Amino acid sequence: MLSAVASSLSPGQWVACGATAVLIAGSLVAYTTFTDAFGIDTESIDQDAWGDRPPSVDGLHNILLLGTDERAGDDASYNDLNGIRPDALVIVSIDVDNGGVTMVNLPRDLVVDLPPCEQNGEFEGTDGGPDQLNHAMRYGGMGCQGNAVETVTGVHLDHMVTVDFAGFEDIIDTIGGVTMCVPEPVDDPKADLQLDAGEQVLNGSQALGLARSRASTEHGSDLGRIENQQRMIGAILREVTEGDILTSPSTLLNFLDSVTDSMVTDEELTLEVMMDLAVAMREVDLERMNMVTAPVMDHPTDPNKVVLQEPAAQELLESVAAGEALPEEDGDGETGDGDAEVAPEEVSLTVLNNTGQDGLATEVETLLNAEGFTVVGTGNPETRAPDETTVYHAPEREEHAELVASALTSARTEEVPDLGEDMELVMGAADWGPVVGLDGQDDDGEDPLTGLDGTTAATDEVSCD
Question: pTM for the full model?
């Protein structure tokens, strides 16, 4: 049975727990003999009633994660609830053939044209029309919500998972906490959270508070809170894959118990299915686990709501639906796009400003991150200060440097024998021009996540250094 919710939680708090439940719990089950010890509540969903559906893609498994803290009572299960609304929605697209995962967050306040939904037991149904995307579950349960997401996004949904947040603290505490960078001190009474600035290990209560907190975000918004939750997903994934959970039977058992106790799935998403996915994905690099929020903008008549920003949203969702949200891998396992042998996600660099223009390094950092590069630091040059814009690189990383140079108006490359994996971009006063974006890529080769401020599970892009 599901754990009872001990306290009222704010929108979207479940996201790290939900993504972990599918991406980690399944993986861990594949390595353990404890599968018979865990029971997961299920709900019957008639996908045939959804009408014309987007086509499925071989090798692609799309799972809709729903989360809510609204309960019908301390002893209620999801099957007893009527009128709940998920506080957040995430499409988890697992690309078995190319070995990667893309998680697309759909904001809870997103207004769309809902499809009709028939009355179902105690659910009242709806004729459809403009409404918040998460209201579909209130009208017709998980099946109605899945139909709405599939209709709006064009992404074929293979499975659905609903997650409560009751076990979140236990999950974090079971793995020994998560390491997070807190760039500024946080004092948020509404989230029951007080944190000092700096990198630190958050326990379950603190991680829960950060997932709840708006005050810890730059603009105090739900979109900012989603960014925190995406960072937390990455932290949990890193902790599980790099820690001792896989080698500690007692820790593994406790972890699986806390995760599965908070899940309700469709009847077809069995532990065996999770195991099959986990076996296929167990060698996936964390750098190929991408997290992104669907592009949105303010609703034209209601500043408290959002609508999809086109054409960016449509391009992203079409790429997810087609299984093209990750760069393909060639036969040697190298990431590639068209003729390019290096992807922006493989490139990390420091941006150094030698132009005399105040604040330029920070501006360029944002632009390069949007292109998919990882900027690990900014500042002024100390060792090398050329007049011409130069990308300094270690031996064997010429292609990485050329890729960076191709995104700039003008730049040369130069090898430095003792330089590490992180390259140095020094912007020179003589020829500096704006970041123009990657060239040499047509529409078929461009990473669809470029420019969407996405992140991966491999690293935390927020630095406390």
Answer: 0.63
